[in-house]
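Reminder: ligand-aware prediction takes two inputs, not one.
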Amino acid sequence: MAHEIRIAGTDVHFACAAGQNILDAALKAGIEMPYSCRKGVCGNCAGALAAGEVECPPTDVAEPGQHLYCQCRPLGDIEIVPAAWHRIDPAARKIFTARVYRNTLAAGDVSVLQLRLPAGRRAKFRAGQYLQVALPDGSRRSYSMANPPHESDTLQLHIRHVAGGQFTQIVTQLKAGDLLQVELPYGNFELREESSAPMLCVVGGTGFSPVKSLLDDLLKKEIKRPVTLIWGARNRGGLYLMAAVERWRKLLPGFNFIPAIEDAGDAQALGGFHGRVDDAVRAHCSSLAGHEVYCCGAPAMVSAVRKACVPERGLDPHHFFSDVFVPGPAAR
Ligand code: FES
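Here is what comes back for the chain with FE2/S2 (inorganic) cluster:
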């Protein structure tokens, strides 16, 4: 049986079908709220309940009194208090047939794919957002734009190869001139431009890509904030775009880079941290009170970094922004 969900303090309400979770119902009704993984891992979709009852699996990701909207189903009509919401502008999301301009193997298991939009067309997105690539079987894959929004006639994607992955098989064959259908923008992982808080960016592997867009945007807009980037990889080859890091070192005042490398020899050679990114956070940050953290990568890595930042280093949980990379078909 369908139930009604109302946003507290507004006259906005929408239907939630039987068995549907709050987040899916909101997105279907054209209302966007913070989210990333849609799997109960990142905590981005947490919000309060002002009235009614919900059924939620147990979690230690949400703060007391908060519910993960991607996991909770209404048991009747309910009233919710999301952390933020806005109506999705259907005209803002566009489908493009983009042309492969360059396809580079940047690391053993990472392709950097550069796409050009058709002549005269521009992609409108905010730094940190992502797109969906349409595959021949009708499924989709999500990838963050690594280029900043002002480079709007191009799209740069960092694609980690996944054994047996459908798009991995396609991407390794793509050559200049091939066409791909993409739709964008999606997501709300983005820079809080109004803030001047020091930023800690913690990324694993190709989690680097949305943060590259954020930092290039910061540079373009001449926003001056202290930034520390911790980039985790198995070995030095996993830091596949050091040219970008070198550019920020030169041009971003207050930029600090810490590679977190699992290979002891490579960590020592680079003067970096030997180990995981969450341990690098513990080693380099005694307190994160007053900071903002931008974290991107696999679900387990994001959850470990959240633990290191929020309960262990005093970060305000509302200042932990994450983009969780979940392999496989994109939820729509
Ligand atoms: S926990 Fe709900 S979107 Fe990640």
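Residues 35-38, 40-45, 68, 70 surround FE2/S2 (inorganic) cluster (CB under 6 Å). The chain has a mean pLDDT of 93. We will return to this case in the review session.
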